[in-house]
Specification:
single chain, 7-stranded mixed β-sheet, 11 strands
């Protein structure tokens, strides 16, 4: 079992930045892939970024490439999502997830956090 808790969401103006954190507990080895997903009101959940267990391989949705950076600190069992140049279209609830393989498919992730709200004003 892996428990995930997100933090760092909030209200920011367009062009601003936020850093989300996802703290994992319940499994000490940290050998799992992590992903960030988001869901805006009335829309399907969509993939944002993912990182493999070592932190050496990362993947991004086209909509966030060049603006968002995913990273992980294995010593702290925490994954981060640095979000720069935020746009109103980035407004959503952001959730982190853990799974055995790194992928953009939400169905491959077994554990999910509750999410943190990100609101970008124009």
């Amino acid at each position: 079992q892996v428990q995930l808790v997100e933090s760092g969401g909030g209200l920011v103006q367009a062009g601003g930045s936020l850093r989300l954190s996802c703290a994992a507990s319940g499994r000490s080895d940290g050998n799992y892939a992590m992903g960030w997903f988001r869901q805006a009101p009335g829309k399907e959940r969509e993939f944002v970024a993912a990182i493999n267990w070592s932190g050496h391989n990362t993947y991004y949705a086209d909509s966030v490439k060049g603006r968002f950076t995913i990273s992980r600190d294995r010593t702290k069992n925490t994954v981060y999502l640095q979000m720069n140049s935020l746009e109103p279209e980035d407004t959503a609830v952001y959730c982190c997830a853990a799974g055995s393989i790194v992928t953009g498919s939400q169905y491959e992730y077994n554990y999910w956090g509750q999410g943190t709200q990100v609101t970008v004003s124009s």
